[in-house]
Specification:
The protein is mainly alpha-helical. The protein is about 55% helix and about 5% strand. The two termini are about 30 Å apart. The structure holds tryptophanyl-5'AMP. Tryptophanyl-5'AMP binds near residues 10, 151 and 154.
């Protein structure tokens, strides 16, 4: 694995089944950039436990996200795929960064504010969540971080912490940024005012493992035009369907459907039927790869064991450098 290439890092929480938003935000860009970067793909279990979860289900969720990365095109010979908690340096660097992170900035994070609005008080893990995320990226000196738009604020904090550390202790970290100029934000199918999310339940998303019938049903019942927007702009629900069409259909099909829509002749049922067909075809090879991998649990364990070993080597070296600069070694 080339060490001289720039580093890409991304993480996904094992909190449920992977959906198209996750795939588009993280896996697809990571898979596409595998030749260009030295890539670290992480199953961030320590982030997942900041919200309520069932310990008995966690091993399956971790295995599921690993399968999703692999089926989505991550090649373990080219990229390092591992579980966050298997590399203790993440937590140690988090503590060190903790000492230079202003509490006020943590309290301004949208995710923290939304959590406290909904649940009242929050655990320290939710407040400190972005510091662990910064540690994830900086341990590998990541500069390219494919994430969806919902993670932009956290990524900005990671960049700020990298700059602050460099200023205080000397040049150590490159400054990470998103791989996309316009990070994707796929909307919930049943409520396009929100983003597609595991926490909104299956009616909000297309899971990467949904079968053809389920995909068709979910797309056909997606909310399109709620009638309360202005007529000039495409309604958010319709725009969302076009985003998904762009992902899954050939360009000519998208162009044809867009023109048809502009002329005012496009029935939403027709758009949905075409989209469902393309999504089913698009997901088919990914699902076939996943089904094959599922039959080989030893291989999946080996990928994660090798990945953690490689990740530990790089992470431990960075941690040593950080501790030296901080006068701890
Ligand atoms: P998580 O597990 O919530 O989501 C994983 C990835 O999916 C993206 N995503 C979306 N993108 C577009 N449209 C959507 N509707 C949508 N929903 C989710 C997320 O932006 C994310 O890229 N904090 C991160 C995990 C993390 C991480 C990191 C990411 C931990 N450490 C270091 C990058 C680098 C999270 O909760 O992702």
């Amino acid at each position: 694995m080339a060490k001289d290439k720039p580093v890409l890092f991304t993480g996904i929480r094992p909190t449920g089944e992977l959906h198209l938003g996750n795939y588009l935000g993280a896996i697809q860009p990571a898979a596409t950039h595998q030749e260009q970067f030295t890539s670290y793909l992480c199953v961030v279990d320590l982030h997942a436990i900041t919200t309520p979860y069932e310990p008995k289900k966690m091993p399956d969720l971790i295995r599921g996200i690993t399968l999703d990365y692999l089926a989505g095109g991550i090649d373990p010979d080219k990229s390092t795929l591992f579980i966050q908690s298997h590399v203790p340096a993440h937590v140690e660097l988090m503590w060190l960064l903790n000492t230079i992170t202003p509490i006020g900035e943590l309290q301004r994070m949208v995710q923290y504010k939304e959590f406290t609005k909904r649940h009242g008080d929050a655990q320290a893990g939710i407040l400190n969540y972005p510091i662990l995320m910064a540690a994830d990226i900086l341990l590998y000196k990541g500069i390219a971080v494919p994430v969806g738009d919902d993670q932009s604020q956290h990524l900005e904090m990671a960049s700020d912490l990298a700059k602050k550390f460099n200023r205080l202790y000397g040049e150590t970290f490159p400054i990470p940024k998103n791989t996309a100029d316009n990070p994707p934000r796929i909307k919930a199918l049943h409520d396009p005012s929100k983003q597609m999310a595991k926490s909104l339940g299956p009616k909000s998303y297309i899971a990467m493992t949904d079968d053809a019938d389920t995909i068709r049903k979910k797309i056909m019942s997606a909310v399109t035009d709620t009638g309360d927007g202005n007529n000039e702009e495409m309604a958010p629900g319709v725009a969302n369907l076009f985003t998904l069409l762009e992902l899954s259909a050939p360009q000519e099909t998208v162009k044809h459907m867009r023109e048809h829509h502009q002329e005012g002749g496009l029935q939403y049922a027709e758009l949905k039927a075409v989209l469902a067909d393309h999504l089913i075809e698009y997901l088919k090879p990914i699902q076939e790869r996943r089904a094959k991998l599922e039959k080989d649990p030893d291989y999946v364990v080996k990928v994660l064991t090798d990945g953690a070993e490689r990740a530990r080597e790089v992470a431990d070296a960075t941690l040593r450098e950080v501790k030296e600069k901080m006068g701890l070694l």
